[in-house]
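Title: Comparing notes on inverse folding

I've been comparing how different people in this forum approach sequence design from structure. To keep things fair, I'm posting one structure and asking everyone to reply with a full sequence. Here's the target:
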């Protein structure tokens, strides 16, 4: 029986018999403000692993059945529900593959959870930076030849972790990269947090799990309509990674009180995405985005290359994109995902419809009529230096070392003691254990910095 059906049946039971957690007892007591925003139904679906319901840590019936359905839909060896976001999937994947001191090749434009995985596992990162597109100020997909070079230089690399699509929507060629990984016996983990719609719509790129990745992790909450922080971890049918090993790793980091409303939402969301309506909804979204970009005036350029069209990256001829972002925010109350001098990123997803896109289109057209030209060419200022990565201490060691705070102006040559992440593009500029260079300092926003 489905989790949702079971929850609805459970609504009917007499809650006075429940002497279990959570103590709101199916909503017998709800703080009024919480009821105002969540409604009482949410509480009726929120319970612990009570009689008749399954256990996410060791699924045997209802959840096991749901996981089986998910594995069928995604065509995987195993699919896990993550009730703590892609973050928990990334940590679990790293835990299941890496031992203390193991080398792992990581594209530097990774999410902070990958760095946290290094601290927790004690693994040793071999960092590389994908090519940088200075015209757009974004990192490109990872190149297969670059990966092979690193494998040749470091024979003992155990795993490769890359983000595809990236925050800005750039894909790597997972099919080719996975072949190289197989050749060198390296496990491939793809952070596909931003790619949860790929399995269901007519995208140019297939999901990583169908292209040879051993593990792919997707946030259902980012683009696919589920609540925060619903996500999935997939193990590919062709991988020799054992689902038990992943389950153990997830049990190590996860709560013992997973959210049943979230599990139910995962069930409903994936069933919808996989339905005829869901698929046509996603294809409709792609069409609306295409119509939107085709309707933009000539003075607006849309990024198009190896990218996911649901991430709309725009550049404005002769205008500073940040100025446009400010007017969008203040006058039209439209919030972009990020803005730089060069580009604006708008993230769309299943909740983006024609009206919303038309609102943005109208606002952009009006703004362009009212603001004056800044320059007579495309703006091309660079907003991040070529990343300089000199590691003095491994992430786990650096994490545990005592820190002190000094003025950033005095930090050149010292060893960084904190994570400094530059948004956009969300790349770790400096991580604990790395040497601070003059080039980094200009990008550090705070006046003080922790050092080791
Ligand atoms: C590329 C990337 N990976 C992983 C994550 C973590 O995802 P979650 O919020 O589902 O834990 C994020 C979140 O912003 C992300 O941008």
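Reply #1:
Here's my take.
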């Amino acid at each position: 029986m489905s989790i949702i059906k079971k929850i609805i049946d459970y609504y009917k039971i007499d809650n006075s018999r429940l002497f279990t957690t959570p103590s709101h007892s199916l909503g017998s007591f709800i703080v009024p403000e919480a009821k105002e925003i969540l409604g009482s139904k949410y509480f009726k679906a929120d319970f612990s692993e009570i009689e008749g319901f399954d256990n996410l840590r060791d699924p045997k019936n209802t959840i096991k059945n749901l996981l089986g359905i998910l594995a069928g839909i995604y065509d995987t060896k195993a699919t896990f529900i993550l009730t703590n976001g892609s973050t928990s999937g990334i940590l679990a994947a790293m835990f299941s593959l890496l031992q203390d001191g193991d080398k792992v090749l990581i594209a530097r434009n990774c999410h902070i959870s990958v760095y946290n995985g290094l601290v927790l596992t004690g693994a040793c990162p071999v960092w590389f930076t994908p090519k940088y597109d200075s015209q757009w100020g974004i990192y490109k997909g990872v190149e297969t030849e670059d990966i092979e070079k690193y494998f040749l230089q470091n024979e003992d690399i155990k795993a490769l972790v890359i983000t595809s699509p990236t925050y800005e929507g750039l894909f790597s060629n997972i099919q080719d990269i996975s072949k190289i990984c197989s050749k060198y016996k390296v496990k491939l983990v793809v952070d596909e947090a931003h790619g949860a719609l790929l399995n269901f719509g007519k995208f140019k790129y297939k999901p990583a799990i169908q292209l040879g990745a051993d593990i792919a992790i997707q946030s259902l909450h980012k683009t696919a309509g589920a609540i925060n922080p619903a996500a999935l971890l997939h193990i590919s049918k062709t991988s020799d990674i054992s689902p038990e090993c992943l389950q153990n790793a997830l049990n190590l980091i996860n709560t013992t009180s997973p959210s049943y409303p979230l599990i139910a939402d995962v069930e409903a969301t994936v069933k919808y995405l996989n339905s005829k309506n869901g698929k046509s909804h996603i294809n409709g979204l792609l069409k609306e985005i295409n119509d939107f970009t085709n309707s933009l005036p000539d003075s607006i350029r849309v990024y198009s290359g190896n990218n996911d069209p649901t991430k709309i990256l725009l550049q404005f001829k002769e205008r500073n994109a940040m100025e446009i972002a400010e007017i969008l925010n203040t006058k039209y109350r439209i919030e972009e995902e990020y803005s730089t001098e060069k580009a604006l990123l708008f993230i769309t997803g299943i909740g983006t419809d024609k009206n919303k896109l038309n609102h943005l289109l109208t606002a952009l057209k009006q703004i362009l009529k009212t603001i004056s030209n800044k320059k007579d060419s495309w703006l091309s200022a660079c907003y991040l230096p070529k990343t300089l990565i000199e590691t003095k201490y491994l992430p786990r060691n650096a994490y545990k070392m005592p820190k002190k705070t000094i003025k950033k102006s005095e930090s050149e040559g010292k060893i960084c003691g904190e994570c400094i992440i530059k948004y956009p593009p969300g790349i770790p500029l400096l991580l604990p254990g790395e040497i601070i260079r003059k080039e980094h300092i200009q990008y550090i926003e705070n006046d003080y910095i922790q050092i080791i």
